[in-house]
Amino acid sequence: MTDDTQLTLGWEEWLSLPDLSLPTIRAKIDTGAKTSALHAFDIEPFGSASRPKVRFAVHPIPGNDDMTIPCSANIIDRREVISSNGESELRYVIETTLAVGGQSWPIEVTLTDRSSMAYRMLLGRQALRENTLVSPAEKFCQPELSYDVYTAAKLRRVTRARALRVAVLSREPGSYSTARLVSEGENRGHVVEVIDTTRCYMAINARAPEVYYDGKRLPRFDAVIPRIGASITTYGCSILRQFETLGTYCVNGSDGIAASRDKLHAHQVLARHRIGMPTTAFAASPKDTKNLMDLVGTAPLIVKLLESTQGKGVVLAETKKAAESVIDAFRGLKANFLVQDFVKEAAGEDIRCLVIGGKVVASMKRTSDGDDFRSNLHRGGTAKVVRISKEERDVATRAAKAFKLGLAGVDLLRSSEGPKVLEVNSSPGLEGIEKASKKDVAGMLFDQIELRVRPAPLKKKSSTKA
């Protein structure tokens, strides 16, 4: 709040910069300096030319580099500033809110590295209002604050949303899902860039691993949303691992994506976590065809390529003889496949549960088109909103957790034995689920990203008794 009451400041005061999630910072008040300055490092401009932004990090506590607050702000100018030692520096200028003594007002601040200075902030005369009196012989005329606010619980309460730089790994910038993510992120003030995974390449070394794109090193991203196509799973996961090495928050990890794409591996993960699924069998030798089918049960049977997507490479064999023919054909193509029990009572329907951050945020029932047993929307299936049971919700969240996926489409079959997981999709489409459920799924994903990409709290030093 603003106030016209006279405010007296000493030459040293405790201030707050709430817009930057800096609830406590000790500053030197210097009327001899025209411009205010804030300690910042890793200063990096981003965004469009019409709406330039800058992101930077601050060590608010002198002598403690473990406490880092990431910040972002709109750039209002870039000025040449001459420091007290006569050196000239071109600095980014931002506008932020200053709070002190129960009063607050907007000020302009330049960003510069003040790590060698005793004060993380210098407040110049330009930032002082007419009703502010500076007493150079006094200090701490206003209430003292504490660095204790930078502990975990307190920091969560004062952390403000900041502009993030987000990469969407996608080869289809015009697709509904990618376009929705870009639109939602930009509406929130973030900068969202679509990166074609196949045009990325890597520099792998111990000191400075980097990701390059079209001949240039990619900037640091706050978060990566992978939408890696099935045909480039191996390379896409390699690129994603590089971002993970850099410490970037990835909505879905490379291990979870790789495991979910390999149908055999995926079912082994589900089995390890005791999650219900159709009975599944796999064998490499053609001599084991009969035993393979016997393990699954009686016909009809499902024969599925290990890397099938959107219902492609999935065949329903009505009889054991038909299953043998399909298996022989797949083996002739040297394709890897598995055989599954066909859940008759599902009757061409499945439930798609969308899980974000460990919670089912939307669900829909997909029904196959005509006589097709596959309910995929890409194959003409239809979708409508559906209420799911507590058991189905629990199975869906457990499945996403088993693959450590922050975003997952979990497909369930309703069987006489309870819900069975048909597939865990690490790049679920948003169009069908948003239209069927009328929910802002893209917005929920960004809620999760904003929650996860936060400043690290101050770690308390452990005390040991002699």
Description of the molecule:
The protein is α+β, with helices and mostly antiparallel strands. Among the domains are: 7-152, Cathepsin D, subunit A, domain 1; 165-259, Rossmann fold, CATH 3.40.50; 279-342, 2-Layer Sandwich (Dna Ligase, domain 1). The chain has helices at residues 152-158, 176-187, 233-245, 254-261, 263-272, 289-296, 320-332, 390-402, 431-437, 441-452, and strands at residues 7-10, 12-17, 22-29, 37-39, 41-46, 53-58, 69-82, 88-100, 103-112, 121-123, 132-135, 165-169, 191-195, 200-203, 210-213, 216-217, 223-226, 249-250, 280-281, 301-305, 314-317, 337-341, 349-356, 359-367, 382-385, 407-415, 418-425. The chain has a nine-stranded mixed β-sheet, with no helix packed on it. A five-stranded antiparallel β-sheet has the order 25-24-23-26-27, sandwiched between helices. Helix 3 links the parallel strand 17 (223-226) and strand 18. Helix 3 (233-245) packs antiparallel against helix 4 (254-261). The two termini are 49 Å apart.
